[in-house]
Amino acid sequence: MLALDTTLTFFAASVLLALSPGPDNVFVLLHSAVHGRRAGLLVVLGLCSGLLFHTAAVALGLAAVFAASTTAFTALKLVGAGYLLWLAWGAWNAPVGIQDSADTGAMTPVQTYLRGVVMNVTNPKVAIFFLAFLPQFADPARGDMAWQIVLLGAVFMLAALLTFSAVAWFAAGFGQVFKRSLRAQRVLNRIASVVFVGLALRLATAQR
């Protein structure tokens, strides 16, 4: 089991990391502003579900493969960059119009949720970050290391869920102002597209 002081310290660090500028919170902010609060929260759930993959990868030792293998790391980051470019294309060509505040765009709730999952899972930097970050808070003297990694992953997911949900909630309120203007909607879509391209380039050129 994890010590209480270790858990609280890890939770606080996780919240700060979730708040720091990065692909995930930028993705949540833009998606919520463009598609609304419900879509933003569904993406948050998807992103946090993707963390299950990375937690399992660290617990099972799979993340070490991405840290050691240039081929595996490059393949996964190119898949992620390609996905971001596809999102950029979709945002650039997204239709505009007066939308209901609960509108999630052309996507179903499941598609919106899966978008968040894919966004997180295809980022090898998250796997390597977990590999470097989670074990620092695990103590061999307190029991099975793999189980401690799982618990730390769960705490990190809770911190990310709370932080990203707050970002989604406020960004959606900001986006409602833009939805009253067709020109503003078009500008917001263009901004989202450019940001997605930037995130794709950042991921494609990332080093281990």
Describe this structure as you would to a colleague.
- The chain has one domain (about 30-205).
- With about 210 residues, the chain is mainly α.
- The model is unreliable at about 100-105 (pLDDT under 50).
- The chain contains nine helices and no strands.
- The longest helix has about 35 residues, at about 145-180.
Observed structural traits:
208 residues; 9 helices; globular; mainly alpha
Give the secondary structure arrangement, pairings included.
Elements: H1 4-19, H2 23-35, H3 37-60, H4 63-68, H5 70-92, H6 109-121, H7 124-133, H8 145-178, H9 182-204
General form: globular
- What fraction, in percent, of the residue positions are helical? over 70%
- As for the number of domains, it is 1
Oligomer class: single chain
What's the alpha carbon Rg, rounded to whole Å? 18 Å
Low-confidence stretches: 98-105
H and E order: HHHHHHHHH
- Mean pLDDT, to the nearest integer, reads 80
% residues in beta strands: under 5%
Distance between the termini: 31 Å
What is the total tally of β strands?
0
Structure summarized in a few sentences:
By secondary structure, the chain is mainly alpha-helical.
